[in-house]
Amino acid sequence: MGDDWRRYPFQLVPGDPHFVFPAAEANHPMCESDTWYLAGELTADSGRRFAFFTIYNKNRPGLALSRSSRARPIVADFYTLALFDLDNGTYGTYTDYDMPGTNKNGSTAPKMSMADERLDLAYECSAGTAIWRTSRDEHGELVPYTYEFSLFGTDHHGEAMRLDLEVTPSRPPVPLGAGAHNGVIECFGQSTTYSYFQTRMTMKGTLSWGSVQEPVTGSAGHVDRQWFPLVANDGGATGDIRSRGHEWRTINLDNGVDISIWRQFDRTKHNAPQPFTGATVSAPDAGPEYADDIEVDITSYVRWPEDIRTLVPPPAKVRYLSDRHRLTSHKLDMDLRAEPLVPAPAHLLPLEYMAGPYRYEGTYRGEAVKGFAFYERSMALYRDWELEDVLEVAEAGERDEVARLIEQQR
Predict the structure, then answer these.
(1) Mind listing the pLDDT tens digit for each residue in 346-388?
(2) Distance (Å, rounded) from C-alpha 275 to C-alpha 190?
(3) Average pLDDT of 135-164?
């Protein structure tokens, strides 16, 4: 696509109006769910290493019905910020909800405001007004894919968090699934889910966290976007939001290759794999590529920390999620092993959601590689037959506890 992507308007997928920028970055008013995600690795001037992610999530169940009846749609939005201290292996997480029963300020106005024609988000949370908007030049014109961030939060230990960033791209956006899917995938049971990502975002700004205040820079950053016609992961006919689970990784390898890997599972059918599942590759010297033969070998699990409470009550007190693992693909000639940089990074979301920074090391198309990544997952294991997998790779110190949990369910 040459440098065409650096100018607005730009059509990522020919013939598909959903992928015309800058509107593709913005709110999609006909969709009940819309998610904006940014994550990255940061290095302070002092040499300290950090990572972060933020999520702005719009959920407006009944939006289609409200358009026909002129009734107001239900607001069920949230905003999340997490910071990670990579040198000490610690993290802080914050989520602010704007949902029925969680808005305590008595206001009926949504906390999140969004533009439809360009990316311009603001979320009025308890810690401050978090913004994510497209930058403008000296003439007031939008600068393509270049963003201003001011992110606020108070972590689960009570420490204030703030991250101010200027973010600029070095790679074009990529439709999830590359040419095989052109960014239109099945996700959580919805066959017309739209998704793209953009990697190698250069970042510069200031990080404040408790007593720490540091100028920071980074280049291993990525934007991920998804929007759904209906509310995402609403549980379908059963109403159980845990009826599906997923894993997602975005890996930045040191050879310039970036890989986004999605895996989805139907938890009502013995965790059977579901579409869309596969890897989308972005490389500096080639067009996007899709591989559907990703194999994952989980080599350790981590227990959900009890001090992080989900909005929806859990099905069991003790739950485990995947941790260390190995990724292989014949199509990509890939063999990577993953190691967490922060243990058990759980977040204050509606259901079990772990996401945090990882290091990958191995081979890619005959070349030794290392990489930084974010790995997110929502597959919390608690049923006896699921815990059998945990027991198989458990270390000696936790085998008795896992075996006892299995026996209790039989």
Answers:
(1) 999 999 999 999 999 999 999 999 999 999 999 999 999 999 9
(2) 10
(3) 97
Q: Among 5, 32, 34, which residue's Cα sits nearest to residue 20? A: 5
The tokens describing 70, both together, are: 């002129």
Does this model's pTM top 0.90?
Answer: yes
- CA nearest to 402, candidates 272, 260, 302: 302
Of 155-164, 194-203, 399-408, the least confident: 399-408
Query: CB under 8 Å to 408, separation ≥6 — which residues?
Result: none
Q: pLDDT value at position 87? A: 98
Map out the domains of the chain as residue ranges.
Answer: 4-408
In angstroms, the Cα distances linking 177 to 185, 219, 229, 276, 291 are: 8, 24, 19, 9, 8
For the record, the structure tokens of 126 come out as 């308890």
pLDDT of 79 higher than 60: yes
Picking from 119, 279, 322, 282, the residue whose alpha carbon sits closest to that of residue 200 is 282
φ and ψ of 403, to 5 deg = -60, -40
What kind of fold does domain 4-408 have according to CATH? Answer: AttH-like fold (2.40.370)
Span 318-335, pLDDT tens digits:
999 999 999 999 999 999
- Give the closest residue to 186 by CA, choosing from 246, 142, 113: 246
- 96 alpha carbon, distance to own chain's centre: 16
Report the pLDDT averaged over residues 245-257. Answer: 97
Predicted pLDDT of residue 100: 75
Residue 275's CB is within 10 A of a number of other CB atoms, namely 15
- The pLDDT > 70 percentage for the chain reads 94
